[in-house]
Design goal:
Blueprint (H helix, E strand, L loop, with lengths): L1 E5 L7 H13 L5 E5 L1 H10 L5 H7 L10 H7 L5 H7 L11 H6 L3 E8 L5 E5 L9 H6 L9 E3 L2 E5 H4 L4 H6 L4 E5 L14 H7 L4 H26 L3 E4 L14 H28 L2
Parallel strand pairs: 1-2, 1-7, 2-3, 7-8
Antiparallel strand pairs: 3-4, 3-6, 5-6
Length: about 280
C-alpha cells in the first residue's frame, strides 16, 4: 500500500499543492493519505480531485485581511481565521466549496492528526468522522498556538497536529503502508532548527505547558525522524519530497510571487516522483 504523508507548513503548503495537481494530471492515486496541518487540507482536496483549488487558497485567499492578519485578530481573536478558511469559503454555498462527496467516496484512506492540548497527545482522525459543512477537524489540525485560539471539540481544546506528531510516518506504517511519499515544505535541514516563534510561546503559553514542551522539543524530534526516514529512503521504502528553495517564505509569509514559485517547484517535484515512484522505491533511487 502506497501512502502519502504531508507535514504541512502554513502558506509553504503551496509546494505540496503543486505535487498533488501533478498527480491529478497524471492520474496517480495513492492508497493512503495522512495529513498534518495545511497538509491535511491539501490531501483532502487531492482526494476530492479539485485541481487548482488549494493554489487559489494560498495565492488569493491567504492574502485577504479577513483571513490572515490584524483585522482577523480584531474580529475573531485569532490572526488566522480558521472559520473563514474552513467554513465561509469551504462549505456548500461558499466561494470555493470542498467537494466533500468525492473526497469521502475515494477508495483511499484519509486521516489527519490533531494535538490534544491538555496532555499533548496526538489524536488521529479518520475520514469517517468528517461531516459535510463541518470541518472542525481541519480547523484543529491547522490551529497554531499564539496565532489561533485553540479549537474546542466535545469540550476539549486542540492544536496543530504538527506539535504532537510532526512527521507521522510511524502511524502510516502501522496502518499498513509499505511504501511512503513524505512531503516536506522546506528543505529537510530547516526542520532541525527550533520553531520560528518559540520565544513568544515561552512568554505566553502558560495555559497548556504540555504544548509548550512539544514546541521546545520539536526540532529534536524532527531530527530523529529524518534520520530514520533517510535510512528508509536508502532501503527504497520512502521517497522524500522537499523544495530546494522557499524563496524567503516562512509559515505565514504573504508573498504571491513566492507562492507561485513554490507551487511550480512542487509541480515539477510531483512529476519527478511519479517518474521514479516504482523504480525509486524498489531500488532506493
Amino acid at each position: 500500500m502506497t501512502g502519502i504523508i504531508d507535514v504541512g507548513g502554513g502558506i509553504r503548503g503551496v509546494f505540496s499543492s503543486g505535487i498533488y495537481d501533478a498527480f491529478l494530471d497524471e492520474g496517480f492515486n495513492a492508497d493512503y493519505c495522512l495529513g498534518v496541518s495545511a497538509g491535511a487540507a491539501n490531501l483532502i482536496t487531492y482526494l476530492a480531485k479539485q485541481r487548482g483549488r488549494t493554489l487559489t487558497f494560498y495565492h488569493e485567499y491567504f492574502m485577504r485581511r479577513e483571513l490572515l492578519g490584524v483585522e482577523a485578530f480584531l474580529k475573531n481573536g485569532s490572526f488566522l481565521n480558521l472559520d473563514y478558511l474552513y467554513s465561509t469559503l469551504s462549505n456548500e454555498g461558499g466561494e470555493n466549496p470542498l467537494d466533500f462527496d468525492t473526497a469521502m467516496s475515494s477508495p483511499a484512506a484519509f486521516k489527519l492528526v490533531i494535538t490534544r492540548a491538555k496532555d499533548g497527545k496526538p489524536c488521529y482522525i479518520d475520514k469517517n468522522k468528517f461531516t459535510k459543512n463541518d470541518y472542525v477537524y481541519l480547523k484543529a489540525t491547522c490551529c497554531l498556538p499564539l496565532v489561533c485560539k485553540p479549537i474546542s471539540i466535545d469540550g476539549e481544546d486542540y492544536y496543530d497536529g504538527g506539535l504532537a506528531d510532526p512527521i507521522p510516518y510511524k502511524k502510516a506504517f502501522a496502518d499498513g503502508c509499505d511504501k511512503l511519499i513524505v512531503v516536506l515544505t522546506k528543505p529537510r535541514k530547516d526542520y532541525l532548527l527550533p520553531m520560528e516563534y518559540l520565544p513568544l510561546m515561552r512568554r505566553f503559553s502558560h495555559r497548556y505547558p504540555e504544548v509548550l514542551q512539544l514546541a521546545e522539543t520539536l526540532h529534536k524530534r524532527n531530527a530523529e525522524s529524518l534520520r530514520e526516514l533517510e535510512a528508509l529512503e536508502k532501503e527504497g521504502k520512502v521517497i522524500i519530497a522537499e523544495p530546494e528553495d522557499c524563496f524567503g517564505m516562512k509559515t505565514l509569509t504573504k508573498d504571491t510571487d513566492a507562492v507561485l514559485k513554490m507551487y511550480y517547484q512542487g509541480y515539477e517535484e510531483g512529476i519527478r516522483i511519479m517518474q521514479n515512484v516504482e523504480c525509486g522505491m524498489q531500488n532506493g533511487g
